[in-house]
Specification:
This protein folds into six domains: 36 residues, no CATH class; 28 residues; 68 residues, no CATH class; 88 residues, wza like fold (2-Layer Sandwich); 83 residues, Outer membrane lipoprotein wza fold like; 74 residues, Outer membrane lipoprotein wza domain like (Outer membrane lipoprotein wza fold like, Roll). Helix content is 26%, strand content 28%. It contains ten helices and 22 strands. It is an alpha+beta fold and 441 residues long.
């Protein structure tokens, strides 16, 4: 009877055993741990933000350690013969027993908004200049150094601050905190005001990639892509519909969901748009890879979209026509592609939006025939004269003469006019036809 009671007690507690003489050996520490675990579940502590963060951190550490062990186990181990051969070939390495204390230096590249950084680190980073390096930690386990490669900032707007909590530091949630970026081994740049406004008005759609971060809660950071239904799966909250929302509206939706579930109080959420796949631009005409292309970022310009489509084809011209909608009205603009890269030409390299169409026209042509070495049609280049056109055709043959030229040109009335003996310095116009006649002698 005593053994049966002991076995029943062990089965219920799962932390004891039965000794050989029939006594009960109870692991008190494990039993107390199980009882405390049960009481914590009943009290709902498994949903407390601090506990959830600690569990997520422990889970990540366990998974990382398991992956390292799996990777190490997959490496081939040397055989006894290989060890003996290495020992015999390098006796100087084993002449005395040495213990090595190693310092590993690892460079990680990442970008962080200011609200994701520890409060005690912000003041030190604010005082740093680009290119400076500071020692953050130097302990028995090693050291941590940080190099500020670049930083971008935006002037703060008054009054837009995050609410302070009792006993916590008050951190302004202003444009400075929204746009300050720390890049280790990378580059950051400030966004012009017009592009910042376009980003604020952009509405998320299926396929867009975003990065979510919560102030002082690094375990809730997430990089994800909106599904076909415009929703994401966020830790603790579950499915959230963000399709059709602006960046600010998405931040409020996530913050409200975290606060409604009693996971965080007054959470400060920031959403960074990484890629835009829901908006597409059509690139047509004389393009190497004409088609529809997604807007990977909000601020892609006409020249960048042409480059993504493979550039202008050999027969393509320098004129691109951009059509679409701006502020609900039809929009059309002719863009000189070559002039974009001249002085102040970048002002005409406007940003494209979803639904825009870029059309690259065929290059204007001119024609040369008669007593020339290479008669045919040629692309009209900028600043070309009849002398250039004649040279493009290989020049006159032995029977041809520069003194016997005729030019057929379309006038303003769309009729073809014949110009006899044109000047060689006359500029060539589109669709001009130059005839080289025979020499009189």
């Amino acid at each position: 009877m005593r053994r049966e009671f002991a076995a029943l007690l062990c089965a219920a507690a799962a932390g004891c055993g039965v000794s050989d003489d029939g006594g009960v050996a109870i692991n008190v520490q494990e039993l107390d741990q199980r009882l405390a675990h049960q009481q914590a579940l009943e009290a709902g502590l498994d949903r407390a933000p601090q506990v959830v963060q600690a569990l997520e951190a422990a889970r990540g550490e366990i998974l990382a350690r398991a992956w390292r062990q799996l990777h190490a186990a997959a490496q081939p181990r040397p055989t006894r013969e290989e060890i003996a051969a290495y020992y015999a070939a390098h006796p100087e390495l084993f002449a005395e027993r040495r213990l090595y204390s190693l310092e590993e230096v690892a460079v990680r590249r990442f970008t962080r908004a200011a609200e994701e950084l520890p409060l005690e680190l912000l003041a030190r980073l604010k005082a740093m200049q680009e290119g400076e390096t500071q020692l953050l930690e130097d302990g028995a386990d090693g050291m941590v150094m940080v190099r500020l490669a670049a930083a971008a900032s935006r002037g703060a707007g008054g009054g837009n601050e995050a609410p302070a909590r009792a006993g916590a530091h008050r951190v302004p949630e202003m444009n400075f905190l929204k746009l300050l970026a720390l890049v280790l081994g990378g580059l950051a740049w400030s966004v012009p005001h017009a592009e910042e406004s376009r980003l604020a008005q952009y509405r998320l759609g299926a396929g867009d990639s975003i990065r979510i971060s919560v102030f002082q809660n690094p375990n809730l950071a997430l990089e994800t892509r909106l599904g076909e239904d415009g929703a994401i799966t966020y830790p603790l909250v579950g499915r959230l519909a963000l399709g059709g929302a602006t960046i600010a509206e998405a931040e409020r939706s996530i913050a409200q969901a975290l606060e409604a579930g009693n996971f965080l109080r007054e959470p400060q959420v920031s959403v960074l748009l990484l890629q835009t796949r829901s908006a597409q631009v059509s690139v047509l005409g004389l393009i190497n890879r004409a088609g529809r292309y997604p807007l990977d970022t909000v601020n892609l310009r006409v020249s960048e979209m042409i480059a993504i489509a493979g550039g202008v084809a050999a027969a393509g011209g320098d004129l691109a026509i951009l059509t679409g909608e701006r502020q609900g009205k039809p929009f059309r603009k002719e863009i000189d592609i070559a002039a974009l890269f001249q002085a102040k030409g970048h002002e005409h390299d406007i940003a494209v939006e979803g639904g825009d169409v870029i059309y690259v026209e065929r290059a204007p042509m001119f024609y040369v025939y008669g007593e020339v070495n290479r008669p045919g049609s040629y692309r009209l280049e900028r600043g070309m004269t009849l002398r250039h056109a004649l040279a493009r055709g290989g020049g006159p043959t032995q029977r041809g003469s520069e003194r016997n030229l005729r030019l057929h040109r379309r006038g303003a009335d769309h009729a073809i006019h014949l110009i006899a003996d044109p000047r060689l310095d006359e500029p060539v116009r589109p669709e001009d036809v130059l005839h080289v006649g025979e020499s009189l002698f």
